[in-house]
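Justification of computing resources. Each target in the renewal requires a structure prediction run like the one illustrated here; the chain below, 419 residues long, is used simply to show the kind of job we budget for.
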Amino acid sequence: MEYLKQAIKQEENQSAETEKIVKDIISNVIANGDVAVKKYEETLSKSFRPLKVDEDEIEKSISLLSSEVKELIERVVDRISTFAQAQLDCLSPFEQEFGPGIRMGHKIIPIERVGAYVPGGRFPLLSSGPMVVAPAKVAGAKKIVACSPANYKGGIHPAVLYGLKCSGATHIYAIGGAQAIAAMAHGTESVPEVDIIGGPGNRFVAEAKRQVFGKVGIDLIAGPSEVLVFSDEKADPKKCAADLLAQAEHDPNARAILVSTSRSIAEQTIQEIKKYLKEFSSDSPAHESWLNMGEVIYTESLEEGINICNEIAIEHLHLHIKDSRSIMDKFHNYGSIFLGQDSSVVFSDKVSGTNHTLPTQKAARYTGGLWVGNYVKVATHQEITGEGVEYLSRHSTLQSEVEGLEGHRLSAAVRLTDH
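Resulting structure tokens:
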């Protein structure tokens, strides 16, 4: 392999500082509840409004939206919900006999109280709320608490509010950052305590999710967006460039990587990116992202390229490869895979139906993205009768004797017929 462009390695000394800041925020919210949350909203977010977004505010805000925008959001919610329902249908409860008198199985049980964090960002992202909330609704959550920063005219953007409402959020709060995660995890006078928190966010949100894990469940810790475009000699450099920049514009620290088996396509893609960036607004994060984090790798063979992709374990893996479906099974580390150059990652970001909350920073080695399964529990059950009692009691009695566990031996032996 050969780097035609390599990321500028920037030392990040923020982790220890971020950890301490977040720890202090969580401790303060636990101790002081709403008072602490309001203080952080005022000092960090410059928000002086009530924490809860009531129904009257929601309705007034939504009334500002055009019918066209509402229709877009409704379509997003419908497609995400439909895909989540199809996933849920694959999770089936079962019960069967595993030997005479031994019946076992599992049930699919919804998590009752879900917390959804929806970032504010530079622009209102119409799909962000539905991506986190709709699967929870499909799963059967009874209470869905949504938090989003009040960074639009003193409140949450109307389009974000409508998306949350349509998706099934039961409580909506204009709270951002680590204080929102702390409030949902531990509860305050205003914010209900939840059982699991899902959704992406900045480094403070990610660190807060890490620190509250155990008190509550979390979906995953997702960092800035990532995309890897894997191309061959038949790829279109303009489409490669466009797909890289689409993710680069999310964040200055977003990673956009091209791996190509064609030096010519790789070099042409670099030139196309330069042309496109001239047309981007000067304050677009894409400029800094591509300069500092962008990479272009030339590889001499398809197999070497596949190995590189699996090693990088990217969030979005887009195959600009002819007959990409034929090699799909060779990839095993990715958040979501996009087959063929016209299967744009943007479609998934917006409306296709798969979830765009996906693992980053090589987490795709051990987890997938947010899905309806995050919001259910697979809980086992068993019923032992007749011959099963005798069989399992004898085994458990002998094993407990070997292990030296007197209580375990007693509990098993007391059920033997010759006890």
